[in-house]
Model the fold of this input.
Amino acid sequence: MIDVAVLAEHAMAAPEHAAFALDPDETPVPSLLFVADDGMYLMSNGRPRLLADPTEPDGPSRIVHSQNPNSDATPLLDDGAIDDDILERIDLTAQFTPTDQTIDLIRKFAVSGGWLVLTITSTRFDVSFAPSKSA
Done:
């Protein structure tokens, strides 16, 4: 979750943000982008982009690959129920609870070793948070 927090903090601090490809007329906001193409991962929409290696300005963006904390779960894309080309936006400034924006919860759960949980089906994309199994 610390790696997710690094991406989120980059998006929050960035002076500009890439538009969400599925709604280019929408005003860009600090967001994490969930991508499922060649694997599943998160990336920041902040501009300038966050590089995997800052010494390589033409190199790839820093990403965080998905992890499955439930070892007996079936890999998400193997059943063919959902497309393997997915792009979803997680608005970091959205009011997630009455007292917290999404970024606030990412910060809290990163410190406590918790999880950002993405539930993805053919009809929905949900974001939630879970404490660490050791908590």
